[in-house]
Amino acid sequence: MSESTGFIEFSYQGECHLTWYKLIGTISPTSSRPLVVLHGGPGLSHTYLSPHARLHEQLGIPIIFYDQLGCGGRSTHLADKSPSFWTIDLFLAELDNVLAHFGIADDFDLLGHAWGGVLAVEYAMSRSPGRLKHLVIADTPASMKLWKEALQMLLQGLLMETGATWRKEEEDATASGDCREILRQFYQRHVCRLEPWPPSLTESVNAMEKDSTVRRSLLGPSQFAIDGGLKTWSAIDRLHSISCPLLVLNGRHDTVQDECVQPFADKVKKVDWVRFEESSHTPFFEEEEKYYSVVEGFLRQ
């Protein structure tokens, strides 16, 4: 399995930045249609999604990973930028730039996890139809309102079960021991149910914690309030414009509950929805074989 890495120059608002990428396989006029993988967070690195490289072995397709601007250890970080800089338009422009660099904008597949799914959905709704051939979104809500409601419901369920209390103002790096324990239990139930967490997931989370600029700008300081730049985001009224086949994935224990993804099933013409019964927010770890079997089957269509 060949692998290459490098940097792509990305100009935005008169400034030049660098996007780090990793390509599994090769891209040529005779190669199969490539898959571009978009990591979540916002603010994680691509590392936790690296196991998706197995799709290259299963399908013989090139796979492109990249660390979005402000994320990971190699792409340009801009911790001094104001929250207004970090927008969906910025990250769509970066995705356009990656596609142009590899010359694949007219024929490719796209897989996005969580926030990466938001970007993928926005791309599918806003770009010329026919270029994107398959869209996979894993653990992605159709609106921030629906996701916030699900987060609050799951948090209240945990608090009722444990008898603990929650104070939003403590939810930061100086949080009390009680608050940290609630977060730990919440993540263990609704983010990744494996114990311990896979090293690649821990590595990506640690990278985000070193520079949380992107996450705080888009989601805000709270794990549950969602009062950053994405707070009013919704795709619901535009989902009918997605013309390519769509695969929607979530877990029974996911922060992205069924109500969060129901609009995709209701409004997209060509859609498959698979829920993983033993998974939360990371079915590619929690039900690995089933997850990749489902994704592989969809991409073969």
From TrEMBL:
Pfam family, one: Abhydrolase_1
GO molecular function, one term: peptidase activity
Positions of the AB hydrolase-1 domain: 34-287
InterPro entries with a match to the protein in the record: AB_hydrolase (IPR050471), AB_hydrolase_1 (IPR000073), AB_hydrolase_fold (IPR029058), Peptidase_S33 (IPR002410), Pro_imino_pep (IPR005945)
Entry keywords, A to Z: Hydrolase
GO BP annotation list: proteolysis
Similarity comment: family membership: Belongs to the peptidase S33 family.
NCBIfam families (alphabetical): pro_imino_pep_2
This protein's name: AB hydrolase-1 domain-containing protein
Organism per entry: Dentipellis fragilis
